[in-house]
Design a protein that fits this description.
With 376 residues, this protein is an alpha+beta fold. α8 packs parallel to α9. The two termini are 19 Å apart.
Amino acid sequence: MTRSVISGSGLFTPSDSITNAELVACHTESVGRFNREHAQEIADGQVEARVESTERFIVKASGIKSRYVLDKRGVLDPERVRPRLPLRKADEWSIQCEMSMHAVEEALQRAGRQGEEVDAVLVACSNLQRPYPAVAIEVQEAMGAAGWAFDLNVACSSATFGIQSAADAIANGHARCVVVVNPEITSAHNNFELRDSHFIFGDACTAVVVEPSDRCRRDEGFEIIGTRLQTRFSNNIRNDFGFLNACETGDRDPHELLFRQNGRQVVKEVCPMVAAHIIEHLADHDLAPGDVSRLWLHQANLSMNQIIGKRVMGRELGEREGPVILDEYANTSSAGSVIAFHRYHEDLAEGDIGVLCSFGAGYSVGSVILRKARIG
C-alpha cells in the first residue's frame, strides 16, 4: 500500500473578529427587545422569557474569548443577529470557493505544489451553501486542477473523514495529489438569539495537501500512520435545515433550522466515546498514549478537550501537548482540529507522533495518527 503524507496545510482567517464583550452587548439588547415585545405571552406562560448572557458565563461554559466571522456588522445588529452576505451571481466564485482558495494556496505553497498538479479535491465541511454543482468542483476549477472532486459532510468530523478518503484514494491509485479543504461559515447556522448558543461558533477555512511519500517535494512532512472513523446516531446535536423545508405541511419552530444541541448530554456521551476511540486506534498500531507528543483535538469546548486529554493520557495535558485555538477562533466545526495542527506542528521533531482528532454531530469521530518524518 502506498504511504500518504500531509505535505502542506493552509488557513484562511476572516478579518472581522468579535469579542465576548461585543457579543454580550448585542445579545443583551436583543433579549430585552424580545422580552418586551412578548411580555404578555411570557406573563401568560405561552412564551419562555429569554435569558441574558455574560462574558463570565461564556468563558466558563466554553473557554471562548473571541471569534472570527465573515460579517461582524450583521451579527452585532440586535435586530438581525446573523451575517449580511451579499448574493453572488452564478458567474462569480461562491463565498466558500473564495475562502477555500485562500487556504488552498497556502497549503500548496507549503507543499511545493501548483494547482494543476492536484488531481482530486474534497470539500469537507458542516454546511454547504448549495446542493449542486459541488463546491469542490468549483474549487477544482479555480485551482486549475484535473481529475475529480466531491463534497462531503460529517459535521465537525468532516476534515478527518476527508483525510481518510484522500489517503484511501492515494493508496488505491485513484489520485496522486489530493487537497482536502474545510470552508466553515458557521456564523450562518448559529442561533445568536439564545444564550446557550450565541457564543459558540466562528468562521474559518483550512486545507491540507495529501500525497504519496515518494512524490513529496518537501524534506519533511507528516506521514499518515493510520486513520479511523466511527459514527453512532444521536439527536443531541441537530440542524433540520434542508430542501424539504419548503414542502413541509406541519408547523415548525424556526430555531430548528439552526444549530441546536443538548450540551450536557453531548459532553457525557461524546467524551468517553472519543477517548476510547483514540486509545483503541493507537493500540491497533502498537502505540500507547505515552508515545504521543501532541493531540490536535476538535476545538468545540475547552472542558471537553481537557476531559478527553486526561482520559487518553491519564493526566492533565500540557499546554503544547493539547494546543487550544478556540479561545481566539471559537468552534469552527471541521476546521478547528486542522487549525490546531496548522499552528502547532513545526516544533515537533522527526519521529514524533501526533493524533489529529475531530468529533461532533452524528455522533461522529475521526482520528488520524501522524508521524513527523524525513521524506525528501
